[in-house]
Amino acid sequence: MTDIDRVLAARNAIIQRNAAIRNATAPATIDPKAAEAFAAKLQGALSATATSVPALTVNQPSPTDSVRSAIASVNETMEQEDVATEAYERGETTDIAAVMLMKSRSDIEFEATLQIRNKLLSAYKDIMNMQI
Questions:
Q1: Strand locations in the chain, DSSP E?
Q2: Is position 103 within any domain?
Q3: How far apart are the first and last CA of the chain?
Q4: How would you write the pLDDT of the chain (132 residues) with one tens digit per residue?
């Protein structure tokens, strides 16, 4: 009887993991009303910009704001990964696939941010070493 229980427990674990992977890769459902409202706003914005001031005067975010928002996004992802890992360690969740997906995502985002920082520092050093 214990062998059957182990097989059934393994089967249930596989089914849960497959469901978690399926949910993680499933496309998000879109509310038709929200999509129509977004399309209307987009159409209004496009028609307003077509008759307004030239594109050069559009208020664009500064590079500093872009970097801050990117770092905040990476930090938020890493915090979510920490919460998921701690929940798994405490036994609150048994979905290891979701935890590993979160960990991989946060690792990739952090590594990309690190590489961008390295490229920016290299460009800065090259500019500082230029002779005028």
A1: none
A2: yes
A3: 83
A4: 677 788 788 888 888 877 777 766 665 566 677 667 766 776 666 565 555 545 555 567 787 888 888 888 999 999 999 999 998 898 888 888 888 998 999 999 999 999 998 999 999 999 999 887
Show the tokens assigned to 3: 């062998």
Helices 96-128 and 63-90 cross at an angle (nearest 10°) of 150
**Can you read off the two tokens belonging to residue 24?**
């993680």
Residue 86, domain member (yes or no): yes
In this structure, is residue 107 part of a structural domain? Answer: yes
Cα distance between residue 117 and residue 125, in whole Å: 12
The answer as to whether 31 is a domain residue is no
> What pTM value is reported for the model?
0.50
Neighbour tally for 13: CB within 10 Å = 13
Among 101, 84, 102, smallest CA distance to 93 is for 84
Parent domain of 119: 62-132
Contact call for residues 24 and 98 (beta carbons, < 8 A) = yes
Q: For the chain, what is the domain count?
A: 1
